[in-house]
Each structure stands twice: as C-alpha cells, then as structure tokens.
Amino acid sequence: MTVVRIENLTKKYANRRGVDRLSFEVEAGQVLGLLGPNGSGKTTAMKAMTGLLKADSGSIELLGMDPAEELPAILERTGCMIETPGLYPYLTAEQNLALTGRFYRGFDAKTVGPLLERVGLLPYRNEKVRRFSVGMKQRLALAAALLPEPELLVLDEPTNGMDIEGTAMFRELLLAERERGCAAVLSSHLAHEMEQLCTHVAVLKEGVMVDSAPVAQVLERWGSIERYYLDVTHSDGREIV
Ligand SMILES: Nc1ncnc2c1ncn2[C@@H]1O[C@H](COP(=O)(O)OP(=O)(O)OP(=O)(O)O)[C@@H](O)[C@H]1O
C-alpha cells in the first residue's frame, strides 16, 4: 500500500526559499530518509506534506486521502515530530501523553505506562516536562507520536539531543514500527543512523531533490550513505574526501 504520494510539491517563503517540485512515494513498511545540508528544505517538505504549512502547488496523498479535505482523519493515523515538540511544560510526562491521547479515537489510557517505558521515561512519569532535558523532551515527543499506533510517522531530526541510549532506543523502536508495517519519513544529519533505519534515501539541495535511491543500492554502489551523499551533493567534480 502506498502511504505517501507526493507529486511536484512546491512551497516557497516570501524570500523565495523553500522546496521546489518534490516528488516521492513511501510504501507501508518503508522508511524514507531525507538528507540535505542545513537550509536545504527538509523541514519545509515535512511541514508542507503534513499540512503544517500550506503548499503553493503540487499534490499530496497520505494514507489514500487528500490532506486538504481529510486532515483530521489522516492525523488520527499519523505520528508527527517536527521541530519543537508540542508538549505541555506544566504537566507531567504521564499527563502529557494522557491529554494528547484523548485526541485519538479508541485511545486507551492503559497504553501510557508501557509507552513511557518504551522510550525510557517511566521513572520520570510524574515529573513536570518543563524540568526535562532536550533529549528527554525528544523521547516524550516520540512517545506522543506513537500514541495513535501510527500507520505513518513523520520525524524531523528525531534523535537530536538524545544520548547514546536514546539513539539506540529510537533505532529499536523505529525498526519495530517498520516491521509492523508503519511507513516513515525522517530527516537526520547522521548518515550512519540513516543506514540502519531507512529503506530509501532522498537528497535535497537548495530545495530541490537532487537524487533518491534504495539504501541497499546506495550501499552496494557507494559503500556508505555518507559517500553517496557527498557525491551527489558535490557533483561538480570537487574532491571532498
Ligand atoms: N518561515 C520562514 N520564512 C522564510 N524562510 C524560511 C522560513 N523557514 C525556513 N526558511 C528558509 O527555507 C529554507 C529551507 O529551510 P528548512 O528549515 O526547510 O531547511 P532544513 O533542510 O530543514 O535545514 P536544517 O538541516 O538546518 O534543519 C532555508 O533557506 C530557510 O532559511
């Protein structure tokens, strides 16, 4: 099943930066990694595809639906973690998840404890989020994204600020979600992490997708995502490594 179908997605800010005619598809059980230098348009692409930003043109289909018409139905089945996590600082970790969970039909409050355990926050469940570190907030935002048992995850630099245990936890968790048939789009600057998590990668440069490929093919031809990335982003012949 095709979970994400994006065609010619364009979103330009007033300063003409943004993304230009992006096209990609993600099937159930696939994880697409967006790579690209700072400011290349990864966050903009993720915001535009999930309706956080209104696209200028192009077509977006998520879970077989058009977000312009059926955004609530899509969000019911989607977990998002884009830029600053939308957490309530004066509530505890547990209260945050219980409150966010109420937005999802069929939410069972009994799932909150196991979810906090999955992201390693069970010992902190009764602490207010305003005292959390950056990595702890990322862990909680990840738990919130998993609340709806998503069929689609959209994660912008999810391991930013996470410690080594956190990144290992994230890897196990995403691989389990992938195994379950969940589709994901994620961005990261960690090429090695992408190799472990993604089935496909796409490289953005100045708002344009300059290349995309299945990870297996990248590893076969380039040996690593880092080499592939450096090759396609510096294809003007300059030596970089
Ligand atoms: N609200 C905004 N108004 C104007 N320009 C913006 C806005 N948000 C982003 N941009 C510009 O759009 C371009 C793409 O930004 P975006 O945040 O999507 O990049 P990114 O690939 O996610 O970067 P990073 O790797 O640093 O997170 C950049 O040139 C940025 O300066």
TrEMBL record:
InterPro entries noted in UniProt: AAA+_ATPase (IPR003593), ABC_transporter-like_ATP-bd (IPR003439), ABC_transporter-like_CS (IPR017871), P-loop_NTPase (IPR027417)
GO molecular function list: ATP binding; kinase activity
PROSITE patterns: ABC_TRANSPORTER_1 (PS00211), ABC_TRANSPORTER_2 (PS50893)
UniProtKB keywords: ATP-binding, Kinase, Nucleotide-binding, Transferase, Transport
Residue span, ABC transporter domain: 4-231
Gene3D superfamilies: P-loop containing nucleotide triphosphate hydrolases
Domain of life: Bacteria
UniProt similarity note: Belongs to the ABC transporter superfamily.
Protein name as catalogued: ABC transporter ATP-binding protein
